[in-house]
Amino acid sequence: MIKIDKQFTDKYIHLASSSERKRTNYNFHKEMSDTLQRMLNILNKNTYVQAHKHENPDKREVFIILTGKVLVVEFDDLGKITEHIILDRELGNYGCEIASGTWHTIICLENNSILYELKDGPYIVETDKQFAAWTPTEGDEGCDDYNKKIIGRIISEN
């Protein structure tokens, strides 16, 4: 049994906070060829996940919040926000499922946030994700501004 408790997650919280990318993950699956990929994503503010989709091969993706607060956003093909949810246990928003072929990103709103992620496998780096050309590439200038712009749009809608 793998217990997902404070002792287990504390190790990865430390790794995420000291990471240049401000995030890390822990894979429960032992092989990238597994047909169900299961992992923890440990995120901090100022991490950037470029909008992407899983298509050809199609893959569904599920996010379940364990701690913290994470914004999940879906987009149309031109980058317009079509749907969003703030995953936050205190709000009663526990998770979401992203359909295959749907552009999406996650934005961490609170340090030390932890998502349990499930995704169809296998994981093959060359075909796993298609990145949105209308978003900055990870590591480029403008990533923080892009996230702030998305958050601003969503706040102004509510």
Order of helices and strands: HEEEEEEEEEEH
Principal-axes geometry comes out as: globular
**Into which percent range does the helicity of residues fall?**
10-25%
What is the second-level CATH architecture?
Answer: Sandwich
Count of discrete structural domains: 1
Instruction: Compute the number of helices.
Output: 2
Strand order of the largest sheet: 1-2-9-4-7
- Describe the main β-sheet briefly: 5 strands, antiparallel
How would you sum up this structure, described in words?
It contains two helices and ten strands, in the order H-E-E-E-E-E-E-E-E-E-E-H. The chain has 158 residues and is an alpha+beta fold. The chain has one domain: Jelly Rolls (Sandwich). It has a five-stranded antiparallel sheet, covered by helices on one side. A three-stranded antiparallel sheet has the order 6-5-8, covered by helices on one side. It has a two-stranded antiparallel ribbon with strand order 3-10. A hairpin with a 5-residue loop joins strand 5 and strand 6. The longest helix is centred in the last third of the chain and has 15 residues. The protein is globular, with a radius of gyration of 15 Å. The N and C termini lie far apart (42 Å).
Task: Briefly characterize the structure.
This protein is of the alpha+beta class and 158 residues long. The chain is 18% helix and 36% strand. The chain has a single domain (6-157), classed as Jelly Rolls.
Defining traits:
single chain; 158 residues; alpha+beta; Jelly Rolls; five-stranded antiparallel sheet; three-stranded antiparallel sheet; 18% helix; 36% strand
